[in-house]
Write a structure and sequence with these properties.
Elements lengths: L7 H16 L8 E2 L16 E4 L28 H10 L13 H5 L12 H11 L3 E7 L16 H4 L6 H10 L3 E6 L39 H24 L6 E4 L14 H7 L4 E2 L6 E2 L2 E4 L12 E6 L15 H12 L4 E6 L9 H17 L14 E2 L3 E4 L2 E6 L19 E6 L6 E4 L4 E2 L2 E4 L2 E6 L9 E6 L1
Parallel strand pairs: 1-7, 2-3, 2-10, 3-4, 4-5, 5-6, 8-9, 9-10
Antiparallel strand pairs: 11-14, 12-13, 13-19, 14-18, 15-16, 15-19, 17-18
């Protein structure tokens, strides 16, 4: 059985994303976008390909970012009687019926002592990204774990406290500028370290309302916070979030993109730093809507949009492996799959943001460079089909994702995978493929981009029918160029 990119695997990933979003106060469905008209921001809809870099304490143990410290995932789908609940608590079997590892938050944060990026080389990262066709990069300056990757004057959990004030954000920004990539900074307003004495580190479980909240050692909380102490904590929380955002906006020169990920659990969370304040400091910046509820572009995560999102700026982010941050020990998804997602998004004018993760020593895993090289070679042959192109003109329609530029049309033949498959082992053998394109005039030529070999086609009833033989297919996405 064959499935599209909207298959079961994506459905499961979407469920996971929704569960995580609910815990950081993100409501993607309700988000609104109204993009800035500032001339310095107009690069965004044409950017095409960005690189998401998830890096932080989790790299010490090759874990995903932040989420391993949250437990109780399997409890959300089952109901426990009192005896079973007592057993789960006694045996700390919180991830019942779930594969996620159990790591206490305190064990997670202790990795800060081992996080020593002595081989940090963003220049090498971003040179490879530039060669591969990436046009912007986004670095996690602070994930939900709460560790700030620069020597922040706010809070006590940053490089200032653990590595003598070494700034990991500045070299990234400088490397972006050196290689001509737009600078993107990810920032999480939810800060679980700062919130550690008040937060429950268990996924909410409506089926088990009596299950106790868990502290930073994953033990049941037995006391309620003092109201006055809680009030002071939330005021300090707001000051921390505001102060760190302003540091990022004022300490490093021009920032092109700000990628928020949630709202802090405090009153008036969207007003801690307003969009107006941000644009006063960085007039040409673009922002996503995950903090303020409205932003310059929509953010689709893990599951691509099911249809053309319309006349809005938009982006689809997805891990290159099945982990946002771990690119060291987890297999990479097939580049045929990754490029398939990329071209599908460009057919709708949506940017694509695959994620990789450096190692704890600051070096990027060899596999990242190897996969970037595959993308680079593909772009050398097929880049004109995704660079400077737009959607098909009104009235034209293709049977596969397609782009247009002038009198050229580009049809993408995407490899097929076994049900739920995303990896090379799941890719099915190439087969003869028929592609159609409704256009008002007969083509001047139809060729396979790169090889420039002519393809057999018919034109009838204002529709081009192209036959792409299996013998001419590659292991990646093939591009049929139609010249009108």
């Amino acid at each position: 059985m064959l499935v599209s990119l909207q298959g079961l695997a994506q459905h499961k990933e979407n469920e996971a994303a929704l569960a995580e979003h609910s815990m950081i106060n993100v409501n993607e469905a309700a988000a609104k976008s109204a993009h800035t008209l500032h001339p310095d921001a107009q690069w965004y809809p044409e950017a095409g390909l960005g690189l998401f870099i998830h890096w932080g304490l989790s790299s010490v143990k090759d874990l995903d970012a932040s989420w391993p410290m949250i437990t109780g995932w399997g409890l959300a789908s089952i109901k426990l009687d009192s005896a079973e609940m007592a057993r789960v608590i006694r045996e700390r079997h919180y991830n019942i019926n779930n594969e996620r590892p159990v790591l206490t938050p305190n064990e997670y944060w202790a990795m800060a002592k081992e996080f020593k990026p002595t081989n940090y080389d963003p220049d090498k990262w971003l040179n490879a990204a530039k060669e591969a066709g990436f046009t912007y990069a986004v670095l996690t300056t602070k994930h939900h774990e709460g560790f700030a990757m620069w020597p922040s004057n706010y809070g006590d959990f940053s490089t200032k406290n653990y590595m003598g004030g070494k700034d990991l954000v500045k070299p990234f920004i400088e490397a972006c500028r050196k290689h001509g990539l737009k600078v993107g900074l990810y920032f999480s307003p939810p800060d679980w370290y700062f919130e550690r004495d008040y937060k429950s580190f268990r996924r909410p479980s409506p089926n088990n309302p009596d299950f106790p909240e868990l502290d930073a050692d994953l033990n049941p909380r037995t006391t309620k916070p003092d109201p006055e102490a809680l009030k002071q904590h939330k005021a300090a929380y707001a000051a921390l979030v505001r102060g760190q955002i302003l540091e990022l906006l004022t300490n490093y020169g021009k920032i092109d993109l700000l990628w928020f990920d949630g709202k802090a659990p405090i009153e008036n969370a969207t007003r801690v730093v307003t969009p107006e304040e941000i644009r006063k400091l960085q007039p040409g910046i673009v922002m996503n809507p995950r903090m303020h509820g409205t932003g310059d572009f929509r953010t689709f995560e893990r599951t691509p949009p099911a249809a053309d999102p319309g006349d809005v700026w938009a982006e689809f982010c997805n891990p290159w492996t099945n982990s946002w941050a771990n690119s060291n020990t987890i297999p990479f998804r097939s580049n045929a799959f990754i490029l398939g997602q990329f071209v599908s998004m460009r057919a709708w004018g949506v940017n694509y943001l695959p994620s990789v993760g450096p190692k704890a020593d600051g070096s990027m895993p060899d596999a990242v460079y190897e996969n970037m090289k595959v993308v680079e070679k593909w772009m050398q042959v097929n880049g004109r089909a995704v660079k400077g192109t737009g959607q098909l003109p009104a009235g034209e329609l293709a049977s596969v994702p397609a782009t247009a530029q002038g009198n050229y049309r580009y049809l993408f033949a995407i490899p097929e995978f076994k049900s739920n498959g995303m990896y090379e082992k799941d890719r099915l053998p190439a087969k003869d493929t028929v592609l159609t394109l409704k256009v008002p005039v007969k083509p001047k030529s139809v060729t396979l981009l790169g090889s420039k070999k002519a393809l057999s086609y018919k034109y009838a009833n204002k529709e081009v029918t192209v036959t792409l033989p299996a013998s001419m297919r590659s292991n990646l996405v093939d591009v049929v160029q139609v010249e009108l």
